[in-house]
Amino acid sequence: AAKSAGGDRWHWFDPAMDRAADDAARLSAELRDAVTENQLVALYQPIVALPSGVATGAEVLLRWQHPERGLLGPDQFIPLAESNGLIVAVGRWVLREAVRQAVDWRTRLGDRAPRRISVNVSARQLTDPHFVDFVATMLRDSGLPPETLMLEVTETAVLAADTAVEQLHRLKALGLRIALDDFGTGHSSLSLLMDCPVDVLKVDKSFVSGATAGRAGAVIVRNLIGFTEDLGIEAVAEGVETPEQAARLHDVGYRFAQGYLFGRPMSAAALESLVTAETVAAA
Ligand code: C2E
Ligand code: MG
Ligand code: MG
Ligand code: MG
To answer: Taking every annotated instance into account, which residue ranges of this chain make up the domain EAL (predicted)?
Structure first.
């Protein structure tokens, strides 16, 4: 039953809820086709070294070029894909596409290719019993050096499934790298580090914005970097938007960052131009 807007009684049929459900059902059906009809688009956001700002890698960020609704961001369809299970097919598409692109760059650009590609993985994918085998087969067939692939998982995703930690260990055994995404926004950030084979902490944008906006934020980013250094983990600051933030992060020891200041999510071709222009400039 749903409560109608403004009403004080519970109704079994609420037209607004009905429409929302219809809409979700339609979008689900369309998303199924989107995978086979090539409507998914992989964008790439540079991950850069500090202080140079030179791209060392890129994170794949998914979009859906919907035939009527235009370009949709992940927030508009990933939660739906997670709830209806389509995320498994969508996630496979993203991984295949990322690996294909990474191999293409390495073949054509050699040393100038982005060194690392990061791919987001959600809880539902991590609990798919075939996920690890899928990744293993894909790596083997593509010939991509496993250490150039990084999988990003959130604390929430790891906590959502009891098999997640074990799956992460099996993935790690394939030689790839694992990042804990949006670090600090979940509930048991620190305890996860004891159980999970984490190579990289992606320090959430909220702390990065806070770094130049008050004492607490500054203390948190400074202490997080010391903490990752002691653990032998790399830190990437997410959501860097201003030169002041970048300078502060570098001052306290951050060596890697990502954010609109350095580049928005862009097409593969645009990322390629960016990295090749940078290597030419550096030569
Ligand atoms: P995320 O993995 O934490 O990715 C970073 C998000 O922050 C991206 O949003 C990116 O565009 C945005 N961002 C980067 N720099 C800045 C900045 O300087 N300022 C601001 N305001 N935002 C910045 P996007 O592309 O909308 O993705 C949102 C989330 O959707 C991602 O968060 C990730 O959790 C999820 N996602 C994206 N692609 C995939 C995918 O292929 N698979 C899965 N499972 N999830 C995905
Ligand atoms: Mg991410
Ligand atoms: Mg993040
Ligand atoms: Mg996020």
So the answer is: 24-279
From the list 128, 195, 184, the residue with the least C-alpha distance to 156 is 184
| Type of residue numbered 197 | P
**The two structure tokens encoding residue 189:** 């950030």
Q: What is the ipTM of this complex?
A: 0.98
Residue 90 token pair: 């969508």
Residue showing tokens 């690890």: 132
Closest-lying ligand 1 atom to the alpha carbon of residue 241: 18
pLDDT averaged over consecutive 10-residue blocks of the chain (283 residues)? Answer: 52 70 87 95 98 96 97 96 94 98 97 95 93 98 98 90 92 97 79 89 93 86 91 96 96 97 98 88 66
- Measured CA to CA, the distance from residue 128 to residue 8 in angstroms comes to 43
Please name which ligand lies nearest the alpha carbon of 63.
Answer: 1
Q: How close is the Cα of 68 to the center of ligand 2, in Å?
A: 27
Torsion angle in degrees (nearest 10) through CA of 94, 264, 208, 224: 40
Ligand 1 pocket mutation pick from 31, 47, 78, 240 by most atoms within 8 angstroms of CB:
78
Rounded Cα distance between 158 and 81, Å, is 18
